[in-house]
Amino acid sequence: MAHLLVIDDDAAVRQTMRRMLLDAGHSVVEADNGATGIAQVTQGAIDVVLTDIIMPGTEGVETIQQIRRLRPNMKIIAMSGSYSSDAYLSAAAKLGAQAILKKPFRTAELRDTINQVLAQPSPNRTS
């Protein structure tokens, strides 16, 4: 299926998502922060990035901006479980995330969102 990068500072979330995505037939790599995730985007063939928004260090909105600069056509899904996640997820969508997910989400919602993003044309952004 697709090669996915999951960026989240919570190891339990990454492990749960990995299990869900492997069961759906995807290959998965993980990063525990935005800086590591950005480095993986530059080094590998990744189809979709799933990034948490609220993280220490390089947070999700900054991660999306940097990935957009490096790989304008990268497909990105932003996710957050923060009580204030609506504003952050809205900002992420404006900066180039093709989809947003509010945590906690069900396996079917995650799979459907990935399938929808994979079916979309690449964003083809230059900024």
In short:
The protein is an alpha/beta fold and 127 residues long. It has helices at 11-23, 34-43, 60-70, 85-94, 107-119; strands at residues 3-7, 27-31, 48-52, 75-80, 99-102.
Measured distance between first and last alpha carbons: 29 Å
How many helices? The count is 5
Quote the CATH topology. Rossmann fold
Tell me, briefly, the overall form.
globular
**How many strands in all?**
5
Q: Could you tell me the mean pLDDT?
A: 89
Runs in which pLDDT lies below 50 for 5 or more consecutive residues are none
- Secondary-structure class: alpha/beta
Describe this structure in words.
45% of the residues lie in helices and 20% in strands. The chain has 127 residues and is α/β, with parallel strands linked by helices. The protein has one domain: Rossmann fold. Strands 2-1-3-4-5 form a five-stranded parallel sheet, sandwiched between helices. Strand 3, helix 3 and strand 4 form a beta-alpha-beta unit.
Topology readout:
Layout: E1 3-7, H1 11-23, E2 27-31, H2 34-43, E3 48-52, H3 60-70, E4 75-80, H4 85-94, E5 99-102, H5 107-119
Which features would summarize this protein structure in a list?
Rossmann fold
